[in-house]
Each structure stands twice: as C-alpha cells, then as structure tokens.
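Record type: monomer structure entry
Structure origin: computed from sequence
Chain ID: A
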Amino acid sequence: MTELTLRATLADRQRLRHLLQEYGVYAGVVVLLLVNIAFTPHFLSTENFRTQAVQVAPIVIVALGMALAIGTEGVDLSVGAVMALATSLLSLYLGYGLVVALLMAALGGVLAGLASGALVAFVGVQPIVATLALMVSGRGLALVLLPQLKDVRNSGMNTLGTGSVLGIPYLVIIAAVLAVVVAFVVRRTTFGRQLLAIGDSRAAAKLAGLPVRRVLVIVYVVSGLLAAVAGILATARLQASDPTSLGTLMELSAITAVVVGGTPLSGGRVRIGGTVAGAVLIQLLTATLIKHDLPPSWTQIAQAVVIVLAVYAARERGKR
C-alpha cells in the first residue's frame, strides 16, 4: 500500500467516523423503525405511535437538563430522585388546589437543583458526588413524604395526562416546546455561550471573567426543574404518585440519550436535536425488546452497551 493510498484510506475512515458521530443516532432511529415495521405486529398503528411519543416525553425533558449539565463537563445523577420528590409533593399538596400542587412540585425540583449547584459551584464538590448525594437523599425524602403509591384523582391532572390538541398529546407538546426553548438558549443566548465556554475549560472561563459559579448553579437548577416537570407529567400519565419506582434509572436513560445524541462527556458542546433523537432511540429500543417478550433486564444491558459504544465513537470528538 503506497503512502498516497494509506492517506486516502485514513481520510475515508475519518469521514466515516465523523458521519457516525454526527448522524449515527438518526441512523439508529431509522434502523429501529425499519426493524419494527418489518417484524413487530401493529407497529404502524396510530395508537402505538401515540403511546411511544407519550412514554418518551419525560425522557426527553430530563435529558434536556442532563445535556446542559454534561455540557459543563458535569452530570446530574439526581434527576430520578427529583422526579420522585416532585410526585410526592404533587400528591401531598393536591388538596390545596392543582396550581399550588404544581408550584410546590416545581419548587422541590428547583431546591434540589440549587443544592446540587451550590455544592458544585461554591463548595467545589465533584458533580458526580454532589448529585449522587441528592440522588439518595432526594428519594429518601420523597418516601418520607409519601411512603406508598397513591392514586391522583384530579380532573386537571387527568386532562394533562390524557388530553391532546389535534391528536397530539399535551405531554408531547410540552416536551417539544421545552426542547425548542433549550436549543434556543444554548445556541442563541449569552448564557448558552458561557455554558459551553465553561465546559470547554472552566479555568479559562474564570480567567476570561465569566460568571462561572452563577452559570453552574443555574444549570443544575434548570436540570432539577426539568426533572420535576417530567415527574409531574409522568404522574399525570399514570394517574398515580409512586415515589418508590417513578424515575428509577431515569438518570441512565437521560445520560444515554445525551451521549448517543453527540454531546461529549468532556463538555464544551451540547446537541439538543441529537439528545431528542437519542431519547427516541432509547424508547424504541426498550419498546422493541418488550414487544418481543425479552425480560426488562435486557433493556438495561442494551442501554449500557449503547453508552459504551457511543462513548467509544465520541473519543476523538471529545478531544480538544
């Protein structure tokens, strides 16, 4: 093999790797769709697509906050616990009216994010440690507030969970709107540019005079708030508050969606469109395994494999 041929081969491999890094998640979604169309009975039904969209909405919302945290070279492991805390607060305060209950659930997410952000930004605790502490304590608090499953009987929550506009469920609309808002913030605002600069190099961001601590706190507050919103929507869909199981392993799904979607764990970049596609990929993968009677444990194994492959494929993308 001549030197010219070798260079051409290496260039082709780099182009192929770049295509996989940029568009692999979309290709994965298309492949799973084709597999299900070919081998899964009734997959093309309207009811099935509606079910898949409703189930993926909370994953999308949580993954949006996770993408912001990972964009700063951090992570938020508390999102599942925050969902559980939100459902407990929602059930606890529903007797005072739906608006009060929603506000208290959202406030719980904000306070959890504020605690994580303060630990990361002001105390200097590693994000994985800070949010791990909130992951444990948050679910514990949720179980103290609501020790067992409780039915949610409220017309407003029922409408939120089952209602739609032009056939599109409210849950899907909310997730789509939040994705557009977060994408706009990341791409078009000063805050978004500051967030990416901090993820690229926190030390350089400090030297440049950027408000590093403030941005980090806001990122984790937003992540907590989005997790609380996801908890509210999941509760509305299930018509029940279950802090024992709601949000369990949601952090795994969110991290998978973000990483598969092209956001490197090394920070400095956030791909919202890829994150949404990653969430859809995870939902389709889960649904495919379930519809073909494979045990739930296989879903977790499959997600772990997807994460490893995505991180491996992103190893060059994450280098700066």
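Annotation 1: The chain is about 75% helix and 0% strand.
Annotation 2: Residues 58-313 form a domain with the ABC transporter involved in vitamin B12 uptake, BtuC fold (CATH 1.10.3470).
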